[in-house]
Design brief:
Blueprint (H helix, E strand, L loop, with lengths): L3 E8 L8 E8 L7 E9 L2 H7 L15 E8 L18 E8 L5 H4 L10 E2 L18 E4 L3 E5 L6 H4 L5 H12 L7 E5 L3 H12 L3 E5 L3 H9 L4 E3 L8 E6 L4 H9 L1 E9 L13 H6 L3 E4 L5 H14 L9 E5 L4 H8 L6 E4 L3
Parallel strand pairs: 9-10, 9-12, 10-11, 12-13, 13-14, 15-16
Antiparallel strand pairs: 1-2, 3-4, 3-7, 3-16, 4-5, 5-6, 5-8
Helix pairs in contact: 4-5, 4-9
Cofactor: Zn(2+)
Keywords: Metal-binding, NAD, Oxidoreductase, Zinc
Protein name: alcohol dehydrogenase
């Protein structure tokens, strides 16, 4: 007889409707290639907020949440899942996992784009299947599917620092990889000083870049100094061009400013524009004569998640990442947590499901 364990998840029923905590039971023995994980702490990502506010489409009902850290309770029979570094996933292991689930065999996976797999599934973005509902981080448990990138988290990394690695930190690692710019000595512009922007500042400055930060919020600009910013601005073009511009706010005026800031040979990486917005002005002659590159980043590769965790393990004591997560809400308090998140600020709100 299959052993069942109790679990709970917060069901999102659509824009303007409260989240409902549902009690269910799930098999204590996951399927082949799967892992059952207890969610120790999750954080409300900006895309979760966009979904709840109706700014981006998402299936309803569903289980939101895709930034979390947890503990493996069980793995399926046969060959166990593997972490990105090749080590086997075992019960008791503390882990973070990717937003995406990829097949590994389609044309896009074969071209090095597993984050855009033709049969892509995403934690926190799937329609609810009442038979297998544990697909988002706002739950006591998640069932990790084959094709999920999993990275072990050392015990010394606090939950509030580790959880954002699954989205924010890994996304920034992907952004800087896509920028293909030698950061040592480079002039780097970061527009948007929320969690992603501050993470980009820390990563780039640690690599030896001169980092300029643009954000209209004075408190965010001030905090950027603690993450290694060389200079900050409320919205003015930097003096002289930049080698790399990283746009993480999604604001149209910030995209335009980042595009206009490029020096000859400069690269712009866009990652914040994940909801529809007005177009920007692009002068093709300037792009041609300036040898400019414009790159879009959405989701990330498995190696970016490993880079993110390695970075946080090595440097979380140097930068105040723990201050970027606030609150401590249970599943039944998620509506309150989203209410606080609507107020803005750099901090994520923490959700402790158990």
């Amino acid at each position: 007889m299959t052993e069942l364990i109790g679990a709970r998840y917060a069901r999102w029923d659509g824009v303007g409707r409260p989240l409902t905590v549902i009690t269910t039971r799930t098999s204590a023995t996951p399927g082949v290639g799967e892992a059952l994980v207890r969610v120790d702490l999750a954080t409300i990502c900006g895309s979760d907020l966009h979904t709840v506010l109706g700014r981006r489409p998402s299936p309803a009902p569903g289980v939101l949440g895709h930034e979390q850290v947890g503990t493996v309770l069980a793995v399926g029979p046969g060959e166990p899942p593997r972490c990105v570094d090749g080590s086997p996933v075992v019960p008791g292991m503390r882990v973070v996992w990717s937003v995406t689930v990829s097949c590994g065999s389609c044309a896009r996976c074969g071209r090095g784009m597993p984050q855009k797999c033709l049969s892509l599934r995403k934690y926190g973005h799937q329609p609810l299947d009442p038979r297998r509902p544990l697909t988002g981080g706002f739950a006591t448990h998640v069932v990790l599917l084959p094709g999920t990138a999993i990275v072990q988290v050392p015990s010394g990394l606090p939950d509030v620092v580790a959880a954002p690695a699954a989205c924010a930190t890994a996304t920034v690692a992907a952004v800087l990889r896509a920028g293909r710019t030698e950061l040592a000595g480079a002039r780097v512009l970061v527009t948007g000083a929320g969690m992603l922007g501050l993470t980009a500042v820390a990563m780039a400055s640690l690599a030896g870049a001169h980092v300029l930060v643009v954000d209209p919020d004075p408190a965010r600009r001030e905090r950027a100094h603690a993450f290694g910013a060389s200079s900050v601005s409320g919205g003015e073009l930097p003096d002289g061009g930049v080698d790399l511009a990283v746009e993480l706010s999604g604001k149209t005026d910030a995209v335009q400013l980042a595009l206009d800031s490029l020096d000859v040979g400069g690269t712009l990486v866009l990652a914040g524009s994940v909801t529809p917005g007005p177009p920007v002005n692009l002068d093709p002659e300037r792009v041609v004569r300036g040898l400019h590159t414009v790159v879009g980043v959405h989701n990330y590769r498995p190696e970016d998640l490993l880079t993110a965790v390695d970075f946080l393990v090595a440097h979380h004591d140097r930068y105040p990442f723990a201050e970027l997560v606030a609150g401590r809400y249970g599943l039944a308090e998620l509506d309150d947590a989203f209410g606080v998140a609507r107020g803005g600020g750099a901090a994520r709100q923490a959700v402790v499901p158990v």
